[in-house]
Amino acid sequence: MLYNLLVSHINSCYIFSIFYNVIVRSGIAILLSFSISFSLIPILIKYFKYWKNLAQPIRNLGHKSYIAKAGTPTMGGIAIIFSIIISTLMLADYKNIYVLTTIFVMLSLAILGLIDDYQKVTKKNTKGINATCKLIGQIMVSIICCMIVNYNLNSEIANHLIIPFFKKLTIDLSIFYIPFALFIIIGSSNAVNLTDGLDGLVTVPIIIVSFCLGLMCYLADNAQYININHLQILHVQQASELTVLCSAIIGASLGFLWYNIQPAKIFMGDVGSLSLGGAIGIISVISKNEIRLGIIGGLFVIEALSAIIQIYSIRYLGGKRVFKMAPIHHHFEQIGWSESKIVSRFWLLSIIFSLIGLSSLIL
User: What class of enzyme is it (predicted)?
Assistant: First the structure.
């Protein structure tokens, strides 16, 4: 809104012209969303912990650290999502269909996650709403958004899929693209949700992935000014406005991380993890980086696969477990790794995956 207002008055004041620059607005978005998130979270902590006693139910995994976690408030994702939406509406073009679609995904999945979190804290169990109901909600939101994005994308690239590390190789999925895009968005949402199991574990990877996606959205929109022959990327007009949104995710997540590093004063909750996962999923679909998301977000893929493998091994291998516990970060806890060791190592893995993903732009 602020961006649209300032641009409309550009003729009356030359300094307003700097707001045409996406990079400038992205930098401001980081600072603004960080400030809002950093300021709002202490209020949520006080409200949830002392006034409403809305603490996260903790599974007893046999660690002393989990005893200390009891009573820690959850739903910190409220501050993250609020900060992102406010910053984006102020600094991005709020008329941009891709921005509006991503905000719709975030807000819808945040509401779904909020309902899930509220049931957990009020009923004092770790299950929340029925898994089938949650999946149906995710599917409905994803279908709406995929149809909107597919309609607005250039028909020449709408159903195309880039294969990283294979120059100029794209696959036209035709009628199968929408189901594939649904899988990306829903899978991303649930994978991020599964990763959110230790203090600070999911926040840094979200920041890293958001940076990579923001960069790729900027490149996708400005492909005509770049030597496109040296980059494996498709031209998506107006995608650079999502760079501002990705920057807002970075800032809001940094503000949250201040309070979420071990020992966490507040947890993100499903309201944050489901919505942020859905956001990076839809952004990858819009910018035509669906498979590349699986690389830069490799940590999320590993966490999700470990849970899937565990479920199927128990079901089809006579109750045998591949991991001591899933998702895989709990496996490392069970073999004696400290929480800080797991988190720091997983952060490093996330950095490595992001570098591999970015390298696929030019290799």
Answer: transferase
